[in-house]
Amino acid sequence: MSTLGYDGSFLLGLYRGMVRIRKFEDRVKLLFLEGRMPGTIHQCQGQEACAVGVCAVLQPDDVVTSTHRPHGHALAKGVTVRSAMAELFARTTGCCKGKGGSLHLGDPAVGMIPAVAIVGGGIPIATGMALAFKMKKESRVAVCFMGDGAVNEGAFHEGVNMGAIWDLPVVYVIENNLYGASTPIHWVTRTKTLAERSCAYGIPGVTVDGNDVLAVYEAAKTAVERARQGRGPTLLELMTYRITGHSRRDPALYQPDEEKRQAMANEPIGRFSRRVIEDGGVGADVLKGIDREVDEEIEAAIEAALAAPEPAPEDALEDLFVE
User: Fold this and answer.
1) Cα separations (Å) of 190 from 42, 197, 312?
2) What is the rounded CA–CA span in Å between residue 257 and residue 260?
3) What percent of the chain has pLDDT over 70?
4) SS3 at position 16
5) Pairing mode, if any, of strands 63-65 and 183-184?
6) For the chain, which domains are there?
7) HSE (CB half, 13 Å, CA atoms) of 296?
8) pLDDT per position as a tens digit, 4-57
9) Fewest C-beta atoms under 10 Å: which of 57, 128, 170, 286?
């Protein structure tokens, strides 16, 4: 047990999870800029504590829905680096057989519903899955990740209201990185926090430091336990920051320089590593060892993806839903 009150292996697991996401995203960004990957990407560097802290609470058969920025959620929920990388390279060994790509990354086998690129599109899906869990009397929870831009979509009101009135086992997680693409959140909402909107639905609303993975974990634990006990949803707002562009070619010039400097000083991985070294009884050499292992894992995934076959044209006729 560390002085932080958590088991050392648990803390190292959180660190590994965040580092895996960061290194995956950084490596993928280079691969796209080099023209070696097809499609486009929306990345989550700086937001790793949100995905890892929430998913650390979940059971394997719980589910999450995601956004156009899904890589971190996928890796945190159990999609392997190898299958995610193959998917981004559009190979048959990918988690969606090369058919989903970045914007629809997922694997239902591990509870990661293929991501929905429509802003707010995952909210009614998570609500519907939670309704199914309740009707089938299953002790499962749905977690809906969304960006701050989603709270002004009609699907937000409809989905959250339905989850609230039926006390569904769902947690609505807002990753508030202060910008909807390039639009500051304070331009498009008058409330001081987005969690305040919960009062319109009669459910708890909590605002948490989304760059503190342990704070995220504790808040998510309370919300998930509430949902699993049949007491209904929670609106969980995680304050974070995207230290990369909205998409692969965005230089993020709309982010003020001083704001960027503060964000880099507050990014979750460096902050957590300092904390576990100082207060968690973890040696810096242990963290460096994890860094090396993750680097090797990612490079092996790239090699495996490049060696894997591309889908054949006739593969487009498979995995279809036909009435």
Assistant:
1) 27, 11, 51
2) 5
3) 99
4) helix
5) unpaired
6) 8-307 (3.40.50.970)
7) 6
8) 789 999 999 999 999 999 999 999 999 999 999 998 999 999 999 999 999 999
9) 286
Residues in the chain, overall count: 323
Question: What stretch of H or E contains 275?
Answer: helix 268-279
Q: In which order are the strands placed within the sheet that holds 205-209? A: 63-65, 142-147, 170-176, 234-239, 205-209
Q: What are phi and psi of 310, to 5 degrees?
A: -85, 155
pLDDT score, position 141: 98
Q: Burial of 214 by CB count in 10 Å (0-12 exposed, 13-18 middle, 19+ buried)?
A: buried
* Tokens 């202060």 sit on residue: 178
Stretch 281-290: mean pLDDT: 94
Q: How far apart, in whole angstroms, are the C-alpha atoms of residue 242 and residue 91? A: 28
pLDDT in tens, 64-77: 999 999 999 999 99
167: left (phi over 0), alpha (psi -120 to 50) or beta: left
Q: Which two tokens stand for residue 85?
A: 């990388």
For residue 210, give every residue at least 6 positions away whose Cβ sits within 8 Å of its Cβ, in sequence order, or none. Answer: 47, 49, 50, 175, 176, 216, 238, 239, 240, 268
pLDDT in tens, 55-111: 999 999 999 999 999 999 999 999 999 999 999 999 999 999 999 999 999 999 999
Task: Note the pTM of the prediction, 2 decimals.
Answer: 0.96
